[in-house]
Amino acid sequence: MSRRLHTTDLGCIACDALTDLGAGKEGWLVDNPALLISLDTHSVALANRSLILILHWQSSNNGRPDPDNNRVVKIRPDLSPIESEYISAVEWFVFDDEVSRVLAVGTSRGYLLIYSLHGKLIHKQIVNTGKILKLRVRGTKRDLTEDTSSEEVCVVMPGVIARFEGSDIQNMLQRWFQGTDSQFWNDSFDKMDLDDSGISSTRLPYQLWNVSKYGPCSDAAITGVMPPPLMETQSSQHYYCAVTIGDDAVISAFRLSEDKSRSLVGAILSKVVPATFSTIASFSKLIWRSEQKPTKKPEVKAQPFARASPLTCLKDHPRKGEKLTLSPNGTLAAITDSLGRILLLDTQALVVVRLWKGYRDANCLFVEMLVNKDTAASRSAYHGYSKSDYCLCLAIHAPRKGIVEVWQMRTGPRLLTIPCTRGSKILQPTYRFNSAMTTSSSYIPLEVFFLNGDSGQISILNRTLN
After folding, report:
1. DSSP secondary-structure letter at 258?
2. In this structure, which of 54, 61, 95, 179 has its CB flanked by the most CB atoms within 10 Å?
3. In whole angstroms, what is the distance from residue 223 CA to residue 203 CA?
4. Strand partners, 52
């Protein structure tokens, strides 16, 4: 009987440039906690504390390295040596329009950097003083089950969460690309929001919350919009639910408010004061116009925190929360802890609905599989699968056991167990920004990729189980 294959080889990223990140040593991909990885279609970004490598790979027929297909871009961000600043997070921002994709970088001083595929710095902005732990891209697309679409970038810092609207980032990138094109063709460049070095000077608006009531968090996520508190006057503002994990509290949940204050006076002042100040400032410029231009940019003041109300907290010393993974619609979260357990959290009811034990150092990713064999067999090659054809599962990589397990959500059985080579990681492409309605023929399910650090081979978990 032939051996059943559950993965398909796609290509290889092996190249000499990887030696700058430690490649060539056994376990270099998994043993270095400072090594960061972010995957995109045909591209992978790897970074240590000071260097970023962007590798563009293409699939080969024999599954072996093809140096002619690999293109490498090296990025060395301008980091502060005085503050010992270093790279602490990387993530792709992928769009369906002409903007295509860019690489976002977080630093230990709280700066958000955005680079083009060619290594050009597009945008630099401080979010808050502190280390950026995670850049989390998430969105819900409008379809038959979702009435609205929401796309966001969540920046996680110790005890702090920031939220950027995906549309604001996309608009800024469109202006930057249009501005660089205008500069190339020697058109009028003064009206573009770019400084002398070609970096976007537009400050992206965002919201900021302090979620350190139960101690600093090691990871966090905004799971979605939630209803306002009981006995509170209905308003047009949104409330978000945030889940955090950390050393002091394994799981904590907060209700995040858009407004910094609920009072009527505060609402009036927030509208009247900026308009009044702007009018006075404009009038004063007409009277006291100065011919000297400032040589330095004005310092950006720290953004005040909006209101974050605690909802619940789970403390179980000495257990500590380590990693958090969200399902596509944000209703489930897989949380790993320091005792080798995996908790499946219902983020709407804020209840743990499932528990796995004996999975130390595990990594989890949600994946969508074609579990029903009849459905998979009935589809012809000319018809794609719709979202309803797929079943949500959880892939658990247990490196100490050398296996990857696939479990059906929420309470289904274990569907698959496959061996995983030591020194490998499971990865998932980032969410693709697109507000258009998702059709059945265009639906792309969540998939899990394998990256072998020793060989550089990239493979994908097959969607069907048979």
Report:
1. S
2. 54
3. 25
4. 47, 75
